[in-house]
Amino acid sequence: MRMRGFVRLTSACKWMFLWLAGATALWGGGNAGALAEVKEIRLAQQFGVNYLPLIVMKRYRLIEKHAEKAGLGAVKVTWAQFGSGAAMNDALLADNLDFASGGVGPLLKIWDRTRSEFDVKGVASLGSMPLYLNTTNPNVKSIRDFAKKDKIALPAVRVSIQAIVLQMAAARAFGEANFARLDDITVSMKHPDAMAALLSGKTEITAHFANSPFQEAELQNPGMRRVLNSYEVTDGPSTLNSLYTIAKFRERNPQGYRAVVAALKEAVEIINRDKKAAAQVYVEEERSKLSPDFVHKILSSRDFIVTTTPQGIMKYAEFMHRTKSIRNRPASWKDVYFPEIHNEPGS
Question: How many angstroms separate the Cα of 314 from the Cα of each of 108, 137, 330?
Answer without folding.
Answer: 10, 33, 8
